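Hi U.,

Before I forget, here's the chain from the pilot set. I'm dumping it here mostly so it's searchable later in email.
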Amino acid sequence: MRWFALTIVGLVALYGAWHLYVTPLAPNAPERTGWLFQQFGQQGVAVGMFLMAIVFILIGVAGILRLVSRPRARR
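Structure:
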């Protein structure tokens, strides 16, 4: 179950990264006050979110494939 959740979190983070990348922020948006945003800007934060999303999706899919391919215990 946790592999499915990790994959879903990765997909949601992927959407969030894409949305942040294509949507300009308002000048007074609360996201502009963070340290990470001030160091790397909007594009840097979007790229970081994208990379984390890809890692989450890969780990989730690998866990799901391992779970599916695992032989069932015989009773």
